[in-house]
């Protein structure tokens, strides 16, 4: 039996992010990855530490690509988000099989979030909690597209919370997958780059005020 691949193909997503100076990569979570993250919580389960370690291995590879400190420890902030080296914005995510990292040099982007989920339908019991009426109409009953909206909202939260500590509910975020946008209740807008392949991935980009989007 062939060995499981260590990553999955994010070529198309990386190409779209390149216009923003952002990078993304994936890593399959493997035994021993927990050694890459010194979790200060003694009660943390090894599976959780393993996923966090895998995400940090992926993140350090991106830091090397950006010419930053590829040995950065990336400890948890009080909110649980990783603390990135000065001048870097980034985000980590994982599901049961893969860990992802996204990162960029701060400048054009002031916030960056990523999330990942299996390419499966969103459970019926959470659809009303996650999606607005407009989002339900736009996804047309497509459970996988509905789950991609969920992924996008999680990515938006990860992009915004480190900026100002906002605790966003699903109802505070309106996602337009077709338009590639997310609008917050307070009027702020983010660019959303969704990806549907072996996994569902979304990257949320918060641009600095006054910066024009790529042409």
Describe the structure.
The protein is 30% helix and 27% strand. It has 215 residues and is of the alpha+beta class. The longest helix has 22 residues, at 143-164. The protein starts with 10 loop residues before the first helix and ends in an 8-residue tail after the last strand. The model has no long low-confidence stretch (mean pLDDT 93).
Element pattern in H and E: HEHEEEHHHEEEE
CATH third-level topology = Ribosomal Protein L22, Chain A
Structural domains: how many:
1
Q: Write down the overall geometry.
A: globular
User: Which residues form runs of ≥5 with pLDDT under 50?
Assistant: none
Strand content: 25-35%
Major sheet summary line: 5 strands, antiparallel
Radius of gyration: 17 Å
Strand sequence of the main sheet, in spatial order? 4-8-7-6-5
Helix content: 25-40%
Number of strands: 8
CATH superfamily: 4'-phosphopantetheinyl transferase domain
Q: Roughly how many Å apart are the termini?
A: 46 Å
């Amino acid at each position: 039996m062939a060995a499981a691949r260590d990553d999955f193909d994010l070529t198309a997503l990386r190409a779209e992010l390149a216009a923003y100076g952002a990078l993304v990569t994936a890593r399959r979570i493997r035994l021993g990855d927990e050694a890459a993250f010194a979790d200060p919580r003694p009660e943390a389960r090894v599976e959780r530490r393993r996923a966090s370690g895998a995400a940090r291995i992926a993140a350090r590879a991106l830091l090397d690509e950006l010419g930053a400190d590829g040995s950065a420890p990336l400890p948890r902030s009080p909110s649980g988000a990783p603390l990135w080296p000065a001048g870097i914005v980034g985000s980590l995510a994982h599901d049961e099989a893969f860990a992802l990292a996204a990162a960029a040099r701060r400048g054009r982007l002031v916030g960056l979030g990523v999330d990942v989920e299996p390419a499966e339908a969103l459970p019926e019991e959470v659809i009303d909690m996650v999606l607005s009426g407009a989002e339900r109409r736009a996804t047309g009953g497509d459970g996988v597209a509905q789950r991609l909206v969920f992924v996008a909202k999680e990515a938006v939260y990860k992009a915004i919370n480190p900026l100002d500590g906002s605790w966003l509910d699903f109802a505070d975020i309106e996602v337009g997958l077709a338009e590639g946008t997310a609008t917050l209740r307070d009027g702020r807008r983010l660019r959303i780059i969704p990806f549907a392949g072996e996994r569902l991935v979304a990257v949320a980009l918060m641009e600095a005020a006054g910066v024009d989007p790529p042409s």
